[in-house]
Write a structure and sequence with these properties.
By secondary structure, the protein is α/β, with parallel strands linked by helices. The protein has 13 helices and ten strands. Strands 1-2-3-4-5-8-9-10 form an eight-stranded parallel β-barrel, surrounded by nine helices. Strand 8, helix 8 and strand 9 form a beta-alpha-beta unit. Bound molecules: glyceraldehyde-3-phosphate, 1,3-dihydroxyacetonephosphate and zinc ion. The site of glyceraldehyde-3-phosphate (G3H) has 11 residues, from helix 3 and strand 3.
Length: 328
């Protein structure tokens, strides 16, 4: 079994100078698609569940499906990660479910919408670090806020991360990785005009902190997927994302974790709409979820190649959470 902490996957990525996608999951088909892509491209992988996803699946179902991904793929280092935890309680719940990595997003208050203060962020993050590290589980925190609102996650306003504050925050909290805001947003509508990321801010942060850096809101929202969605009856005018070249530049400048949810949603929606449009007589869920699973596998494979994750699954011996616990 190769359940590893997020820290091991990201520290190795930092050493090897490549990026690792963290892909959001809600159901079996998504998990299977991501794992098939990881297996085919020999990539370490982070599968992450949001609070919304855990609630949707009643926690236990998704937890066990994610565990199945680990059991079925013993040769792949897999981290089970909580995305956008909003409190110590949410982190505890995930850790009790077997997660090896948690995010505490203290840049927002517990409602997941209201921007918090620096002091609140430090306090809640420290409480999670203390609990998680005792169990060998690694912690991602966030400083600065993203734009976009996705099912209640996000304040809707971008506050680009202050590099000096990021350094102070890392020193004060002892987190393992840090999510920063450099202009990305959650969801399918990221930019009004051309994509514009604050690479100068990223460079400055990279010069000041040594832990892995995380980019949320990193879906590319490829035009061909939007065209397919619209062609088969969808309505998503003006959707835009972060171009792959910008993500590759960010990886070059020192980003290790790249969060992707929206693109997975889009590719499955396009595939399902296509089946419905072309074969209206079909009604077996396997007839549309099957093609959606294949389409998602292909998409994730291309990301694993583009982020440089491919080929690295066998680079290192997986460390148990017990070993990680001793390293803190
Ligand atoms: O960052 C947010 C992710 O896209 C999760 O979205 O809360 O709708 O599951 P969700
Ligand atoms: P996207 O909406 O760009 O896929 O971002 C997902 C994310 O950041 C999950 O935490
Ligand atoms: Zn996010």
């Amino acid at each position: 079994m190769a359940l590893v902490s997020g820290k091991q996957i990201l520290d190795e990525a930092q050493k090897g100078k490549y990026g690792v996608g963290a892909y959001n999951v809600n159901n079996m088909e998504q998990i299977q698609a991501i794992m098939a892509a990881a297996k085919e491209t020999k990539s370490p992988v982070i599968i992450q569940a949001s609070r919304g996803a855990l609630k949707y699946s009643n926690f236990t179902y998704l937890g066990y499906l994610m565990k199945a991904a680990v059991i079925e793929n013993p040769e792949i280092p897999v981290s089970m990660h909580l995305d956008h935890g909003n409190s110590l309680d949410s982190a505890i719940k995930a850790i009790e479910l077997g997660f090896s990595s948690v995010m505490i997003d203290g840049s927002l208050m517990e409602d997941g919408k209201t921007a918090s203060t620096y002091d609140y962020n430090v306090k809640v993050t420290k409480s999670v670090v203390e609990y998680a590290h005792k169990r060998g589980v690694s912690v991602e925190a966030e400083i600065g806020t993203l734009g976009g609102i996705e099912d209640g996650v996000g304040s809707g306003t971008i506050h680009v991360t202050d590099p000096k504050e990021a350094k102070k925050f890392v020193n004060e909290t002892g987190v393992d990785s840090l999510a920063i805001a450099i202009g990305t947003s959650h969801g399918a509508y990221k930019f009004k005009g051309a994509a514009n990321l604050a690479f100068d801010v990223l460079k400055e942060i990279r010069g000041l902190i040594s832990i892995p850096i995380v980019l949320h809101g990193a879906s590319s929202v490829p035009k061909n997927l939007i065209d397919d969605v619209n062609k088969y009856g969808g309505k998503m005018p003006g959707a835009t994302g972060v171009p792959m070249e910008s993500l590759q530049e960010a990886i070059k400048l020192g980003v290790q974790k790249i969060n992707v949810d929206t693109d997975g949603r889009l590719v499955m929606t396009a595939a399902i709409r296509k089946v419905f449009a072309e074969s209206p007589e079909k009604f077996d869920p396997r007839d549309y979820l099957g093609p959606a699973r294949i389409a998602l596998t292909d998409l994730i494979k291309s990301k694993m190649l583009a982020f440089g994750t491919a080929g690295h699954s066998g680079d290192y011996a997986p460390k148990s959470l017990e070993e990680m616990k001793r390293s803190y």
